[in-house]
Amino acid sequence: MNYRIALAALIVALAGCGPAAQTNKGVYLLLDTSGTYSAEIKKAEQIVLYILSRLEPADSLAVARIDTGSFSEKDIVAKATFDDRPSAANRQKRQFAQRMQSVVAQSKASSYTDITGGLLQAIEFLNEKGAGRKEILIFSDLKEDLAKGYVREVPLDLKGFDVIALNVTKLRSDNFDPREYLARVEAWRQKVESGGGRWRMINDLERLDGLL
Amino acid sequence: MDHILSITPWPAVSALIWFVALAVVLYLARRTAHRAIHVATDAIARGLRLAAHSVAHAELRLAARNRDVLLAGGREAKERIVEREFVRVAETTRKDLTNYPALHRALSESILHIEEDHQKSVEVPPEPPAWVRAVEAVAKIDAKNGAADVLADIHKSMVRAHGEAMQAYRKASGERHGFLRQMMPEWRGIQETLGRVNKVIESLLARSVTIDRHMQEYEDIVRGQDRAVSILQSSSVVQFFVSMFVMLVAIGGAAINFSLIARPMAEMVGGTHFIGGFRTADIAALVIIMVEISMGLFLMESLRITRLFPVIGALPDKMRVRMIWITFSILVLLASVEAGLAYMREVLLQDELATGALLRGEGGGELQSQYLWITTAAQMGMGFVLPFALVFVAIPLETFVHSLRTVLGLSGVALLRAFALVLRVLGSGFRQLGMLAERLYDLPIFLPLWIESRHLAPAGPAADEHELRESPL
Lengths: 212, 473
Known about the structure:
The complex is a heterodimer of chains A (212) and B (473).
Chain A: H1 2-16, E1 25-32, H2 41-54, E2 60-66, E3 76-81, H3 86-105, H4 115-129, E4 133-139, E5 161-166, H5 172-176, H6 178-194, E6 198-202
Parallel strand pairs in A: 1-2, 1-4, 4-5, 5-6
Antiparallel strand pairs in A: 2-3
Helix pairs in contact in A: 2-3
Chain B: H1 11-28, H2 30-96, H3 100-120, H4 132-140, H5 147-223, H6 226-269, E1 274-275, E2 278-279, H7 280-302, H8 310-313, H9 317-359, H10 372-391, H11 394-442, H12 446-455, H13 461-470
Antiparallel strand pairs in B: 1-2
């Protein structure tokens, strides 16, 4: 009887060991590189640096472009899962920051804007990472413009995801008719919430305190 | 309610009829009702009284046990003190009085030297000149017979002899004074030696007085005198609070120690692993501190400063010395590890600051204070010293454990006493409640009772019982 109790205690103890799969964060940043938004891309570096400063060891971060067809691993321009040793994680963060500098410098404008494809890729990436808290940041004006032949009428499974739209700029046409802007934002909110996700929007990049 | 009051067309009359009926029923059932109330409340009161008695008995047993524990602890402590005093006396005797033969020899030699010098310094009376009588005879001769010349020669010789004698006398006196001077260091030596002996004897006398006092207290404890128990109790309570205070200080030290090593521990065991909801790095740091405290306990036990583990104290001396060296070596090793971790902590902190500065866009983060080495050295020093400081936790811990028994016992006695009192009060309260219930029962039937008391003689067992119940009040 005693050895059974000891065995059970050992199993419980061993079950307690292991990586903190449920407490780490996974962040996926989508950068809109379309013609209407490419001028804003430099601000993305600031956001990435802020995110890096908030991430802990064992967290994951990926930065991907939104271009004509975004549902592709090729659009991920930088990614890292930080080591659980703090010094190694710091080194990775510095390397990531340098990588982002070159990404921003070499960024090219795309013809179309496939935000949904990027979201699908983000869901897949973060689910693979098994992060406890999953956040998708969309740095875009939220104006989706799909090329001919791209089908994106796919239901998004966003249960457990936080989707945060950053720096949602107003288009020239929005100034004429603000309803277009409001309708666009509302449509994305409904899309995310119908998929089970939580929707937020932060336009003031000086106040990113509540981001992560 | 309306139904009850509708037995007659007049509710008041109905109510009166009901009241009379109820009074009759209550009067008829009075004896039985009183007995029921009495039995019920008395049973509860008896139960409570029994419980109070039982609790009081438990309190007495606990108090006796406390007394035994206190006396046993006091006896053991006194034995240790007396034993230590005897060890000190033995040490003093061994250190100082083992040299007594040499001391005695030195004293004898000094006295011998003094005697010799004294002998040498004795003044020898000058010899009476042998020719004095010849001079007297010559003096009687007539001067004409040439005695004057003889006398003149004799006078000259005498003056010369006197001068020589005086010179010899002075020389002898000088030598004697020299011998006397030589005696001075010997005297001083004797004085110092006797002073040392006196000091040792006084120390022994003082120790014997202390031992006498401790033995008197020991005898009081052995005899189990109340005064001794009272002294031990108050002493135990004071020791409890003092040791608790020191333990709190030690816990503060352990917390600082923890903060020094928890962060760099993440570099060794990873910063994101958890065991039962706690970070593995934190647990590892805590384990290191606990191991240090354990080693400190073993070291103190091996040194026989504390006696928490009788097994260690009873080990052969050779084994005990080995244990001392082993535990001390492990402590040094752990202290060195802590110093290294404290250094690592500073390095990590600087790395994080540099990374943070870079991410905030504040340059390369290479800026470093020239006085940084001071904090680094201080952290390393604390990391090395704190494990050794924690070793001494064993002493207040032992006192705390021993005094805790007494304090818990005293608290238990006080608690049981209070509980017994509450039970007694409740028991008495239930008795009073029963009597009150009987009085309240009699209230609606006061009229038949009054009539009964006026016209019927209060006789019979029921009345007697009633009287008996009222009499204690």
